[in-house]
UniProtKB/TrEMBL annotation, chain A:
Signal peptide: none
Chain intervals for the UniProt region annotation (Disordered): 325-357
Record field: compositional bias (Low complexity): 348-357
Compositional bias segments (type: Acidic residues): 326-347
Domain of life: Bacteria
Family annotation (InterPro entries): MBL, RibonucZ/Hydroxyglut_hydro, Xnuc_lig_assoc
Name of the protein this chain belongs to: Ligase-associated DNA damage response exonuclease
From TrEMBL, chain B:
Database matches in InterPro entries: ATP-dep_DNA_ligase (IPR050191), ATP_dep_DNA_lig_pp_1105_fam (IPR026333), DNA_ligase_ATP-dep_C (IPR012309), DNA_ligase_ATP-dep_cent (IPR012310), DNA_ligase_ATP-dep_N (IPR012308), DNA_ligase_N_sf (IPR036599), NA-bd_OB-fold (IPR012340)
Segments forming domain ATP-dependent DNA ligase family profile: 305-437
Catalytic reaction annotation: ATP + (deoxyribonucleotide)n-3'-hydroxyl + 5'-phospho-(deoxyribonucleotide)m = (deoxyribonucleotide)n+m + AMP + diphosphate
EC top class named in words: ligase
MF annotations from Gene Ontology: DNA ligase (ATP) activity
NCBIfam families: DNA_lig_bact, PRK09247.1
UniProt xrefs under PROSITE patterns: DNA_LIGASE_A3 (PS50160)
Pfam families given in the database record: DNA_ligase_A_C, DNA_ligase_A_M, DNA_ligase_A_N
Annotated keywords: ATP-binding, Cell cycle, Cell division, DNA damage, DNA recombination, DNA repair, DNA replication, Ligase, Metal-binding, Nucleotide-binding
Protein's gene: lig
EC number(s) reported in the record: 6.5.1.1
Protein name: DNA ligase (ATP)
Top-level taxon of origin: Bacteria
Amino acid sequence: MSELLTRTDRGLYCEAGGFYIDPWRPVERAVVTHAHADHARRGMGSYLTTPEGEPVLRPRMGEEAVIQTAAYGEAVHMNGVTVSLHPAGHILGSAQVRVERRGEVWVVSGDYKLGSDRTCATFEPVQCQTFITESTFGLPIYRWPDQNEIFRQMNDWWAANRAAGKVSVLFAYALGKAQRLLAGADPSIGPIYGHGAVQVCNEGYRQAGIDLPACEYAGRGERGKDWDGALVVAPPGARGTPWLRKFRNYSTAFASGWMLVRGQRRRRSVDRGFVMSDHADWDGLLQTVRDTGCERCFITHGSRRVMEQYLNSETEVEAHQLETWFEGETDEGSAESDRESTDEELAEAANEGAGNE
Amino acid sequence: MNKFTTLFTRLDETNKTLAKQAALVDYFKDAPPADAAWAVYFLSGRKLKRLLLSRELRAWGAAEAGVPDWLFEASYEVVGDLAETLALLLPPPEEATELPLKTFVEERLLPLKGMEEGERRAAVVQLWRELDRPQRFVAGKLMTGSFRVGVSQRSVIKALAIVGDVPPELVAHRMMGTWEPTAGFYTSLTLPEADGEIDASRPYPFFLAHPTVAPSDDLDDANEYFAEWKWDGIRSQVIRRQGQSFVWSRGEELIGERFPEILAVADALPDGTALDGEIVIARDGDVQSFAELQRRIGRKTVGKKLLKECPAHFVLFDVLEAGGEDVRNQPLERRRECLAAIAESLAEQGLNVSPSDLLEGETWEAFAVHREHSRSMRAEGLMLKRKDAPYGVGRVRGPWWKWKVDPYTVDGVMLYAQRGHGRRASLYTDYTFGVWDEVDGEAKLVPFAKAYSGLTDKEIGSVDKWIRRNTVNKFGPVREVKHERVFELAFENIQQSTRHKSGIAVRFPRIVRIRDDKIAAEADTLDTVKGLVE
């Protein structure tokens, strides 16, 4: 008897339903959990996502991409297999994928977080027999502080920089984290600007009806502009580039779950690290595995080995590692841990991967 | 403890010297002297004597955090720092209390040493329950003796000088030697200078040299400088005052007991003398390799046999105090005259001491010829010292320079990798390299050096990535990688070693560059490496 979902060299495949979930090579039919580049790739015959997810997926997959949508909880039937999408709380439109055939239920979590986030639908656990979970932060050292505390720190930092006559440059993944931070920023402190990559995503959020404070395009090399006291939100890739020069006197910060660990913080050599993640922390991962009521759990992305051993030895759940091609050998907190990589890096990785197989 | 933790956090958050300075000044302005004394103690790199075992902390921490031991270890491996792992894993504190640093150290940490294991465990767990996360981190660092923060002794001294409005040199002098971290000591650090305050044992701050690779670019005319051999030994200060003798290492340890020959030199000096020089091992007037000196280092008492086999010798190169007077402000030329007289009288008494040779020459070309011979002299290169310069404090650019010989370089193949610590936690940054050797008629790679430094952050990132994708074997935390990538390594010296598979040990190995233009077969052989040293 073959499994409902299997791992193939193109991605996670449902043979009975004839579709792939977050495939990494071109396929006819792709169900995507969210628009981040390591989950949604160009070149698929068609995409299935949520209506909220479409405005952020579209600019990344191209104007000509065929994108179908299904509302959270709406059943889509494919060759006798029922597929539905459920809130994952990761970024706008992100979804867990529930796959059912003749009473057998699998859920693929994609990336998810449990905490509150006003820019996307809140995570809901989905009952299943087999659960495929991410484990980016699958170690007990990772326990997230309250988001409002982080917003307070961020706004205090910004206000203090403003008082010292400095620009505040905040690095955050362009899609998702940047908008979550913007939603928590206090616009009464000063003007807010966004890097081009951030602006594109902001636009998608606004189209989906998410209210964000005014955020002006930080532009390219406008000389002599007064940036005094501004907050500038930029992707991590902008760190150490000449683009930053125009802000002259500035302080930098990076918002990421990795900022919890001192070594990681120091390696980034930013002035401040804000501990904010769009992934589940250790308690969140374990609670979710419990809440799904699953008997079996496959673990991808991150601390696979640790989660596998913990679930097998400390719980009733039967756990296995599931290697995804994207991380290769990435485990806990490696240099590659900036999950939202640039498309160039992914393209390069894709070429390498092809050579290996 | 709260204020000290805040200070640590501020120092840790920035790499800007001025911001660090400001944090230190803020702290010392406010802190009660009894707390500030301990702060100076820890910030200047002094440690508490071992209070407990790291194994104990790990076991108690895992139990208190409610995680299995293996999971604690897996977390530790990622964090790369025990104190931080504990801070992250332990549940939030029940009752945060504010302990002054003095109380914390003297009443909560120091007593741990004498306790039975059970009692010690209860005391540590109780401490954890009273401290918040940042405090636990600092507390863990102090407990394990691994407290380090990126702040130089110089910055601490400068901050104290600003707060007390006294010259930094005076503070530097007062901080040398042995002292107890008491309120009285702290207050005395910033008192105005008094006559005759220098106590008998106190050494002067060592003057250090700047590196140069091209003296003709960095320095003035060659004839303005004395050139001496740069020995690979123990930089020391030998002091005779008030009928007592002291031998200080640059690490501010009293090492006289370990080097009775040098202590004898001190004994023979007139009262009120302080000399600067290098302890080396010398036989029949020839300086021996550092490996010989290593046999003496670390032994508190020395047997007769070792004393005979590895006699210590003091190469004298400066006079800091003579006739009870601080002569550091005199030009080096004058100090050398004084030194020659002292050395002569010591040598007449048959003591193991000689003044450093001043190498002949008036041009950089002439000195360069001497430098070429450094290795055969077992020297690391040349020291260049301005003839008219006073003896300064710390590492000041200008008067003293070290012009080392170029290192040996070898192309090795990466064999194993391990994760680093601290800033490099969780990245694979510690590598073992091999060179080719014939074993039973077959060419094999034998490990010959470990290196941790030399790559840029960007290179480390890409090498880390490569290691993860090219692991062929895992032995606990060690990964064996495909024997594919060639790295050029530099090192200072090669010694015979029975403890290493390759039969050699290299000194200060580091990575010069990645040689992706070479394949593994093009790496060097063990014979080539051995052949580098005649």
